[in-house]
Amino acid sequence: MPSPADVKPRLSHALCGADLRTIAEVAASGVASGALSAGGVLRLGLAGLAAVGRLPITLLESIGPGRGAATAPMKHPPVFILGHWRSGTTHLYNVLSKSGRFGYVSPIATGLPWDFVLLERFLGPLLRKSLPSGRYIDSIPVNPDSPQEDEIALANMQRLSFYHGLYLPKRIERELSEGLFFDGASPAQIARWQRCVRRFFNKLERTQPGPDGSGTTLLIKNPVYAARVKLLRETFPGAKFVHIQRDPYRVLPSMRNFYGVLFKQLGLGPATGVDIDEIVLGTYTRMMETLYRDTEGLPESECLHVRFEDFERAPLGTIGDIYSKLDLHGGDAGFKAARPAFERYLDSVKGYKKNRYAPDPDIARLVNDRWGAWVDRLGYERREPEAGSEVEPKSGTSAEPALT
Asked: Residue 287: enclosing H or E segment and its boundaries?
């Protein structure tokens, strides 16, 4: 896994798939707060030029494949994978996506949410060649059929997004508050977010008709949605949720690396003075409180909580349980039909070895002090600081990225 020092920012930026309004709003916030560096201004300028260049395609898509997508009901309610970052959401997403029955977010759709249908139709081979070799934060390869989370796409369509805190590190506390928990967001801003997510999901559903042509159920993975279950249930009636949890003593050190790498890769200004530990500790607590409050009383047929450690130890058993309890694609029959595909994928990642970690007493102290109640509630064993905890290595490759 790369350390922050090893990561070099690309000249192009994730906002190169955004619309002009979103880019202008990011620029205005960055200028007003002094959060933009000269390099950030250049990258925003390139993003603006990309938006202008795509404008004819964007307009054509809005009156063609995307017509009515912002308001039309979906044929099938989505299935959402929830979980704090670095808790196993990506591995679960990768396995479930192999069933052949789910639709999901492709890399091209992630980067170009406004016009991916037409651009992929006419420039697909060229766009696929331009994909990065791996994800920003780890060594997971990015292939044309690699399922992606939708948060970058939504950050390219409007301003309520966790990613805008990564783009403007100097404003991260405010951006996270607004973009993650919608603190201070106006009804108009929330309605805009809902229109954008409906538009994006409907286009994904329309372009992935499923094996029998009757439509596909979208499988959506996004850690942010752990704080939005109530809103998602209002926006997509009938939606189902899988929450995957992981040992908090593993989450904290991994999140230190997560922020360090993403600030370096995506920041449009310096991240000096940002207290990463405090951001992670506070965000985790609030996300978990919101998630369990919003899912309280929901039956397992609508929301299922699973442990990463159980999934890691017995992946097929966990997937079978998810299929059965959420009644996915016919429940047990659906799992039986998809099991060979799951087995092939799991066999393909068996060669990875987990990272070994050096003990860090500071991790155990922080987790015990700030997340101790969640360690207990989630059923993990508390660790004494003298025993240390695990920290992310500075370099090396292993299966660990594929599990998070």
From this structure: helix 276-295
Residues 129-188: pLDDT tens digits? 665 554 454 455 556 678 999 999 999 999 999 999 999 999 999 999 999 999 999 999
Of residues 14, 20, 28, 10, the one with CA closest to residue 49: 20
Query: How far apart are the C-alpha atoms of 67 and 385, rounded to whole Å?
Result: 57
Side-chain-side CA neighbours of 228 within 13 Å: the count stands at 28
Residue 329, sorted as left (phi over 0), alpha (psi -120 to 50) or beta, turns out to be left
Tokens for 247?
Answer: 């040992």
In terms of Cβ atoms closer than 10 Å to its own Cβ (0-12, 13-18, 19+), residue 161 is buried
Q: 10 Å Cβ neighbour count for 235? A: 16
What is the three-class DSSP state of 258? helix
Whats the size of the chain, residue-wise?
Answer: 404
CA 308 from centroid of its chain's CA atoms: 17
Q: Is 28 exposed, middle or buried (0-12, 13-18, 19+ CB in 10 A)?
A: exposed
First to last CA, the chain: 12
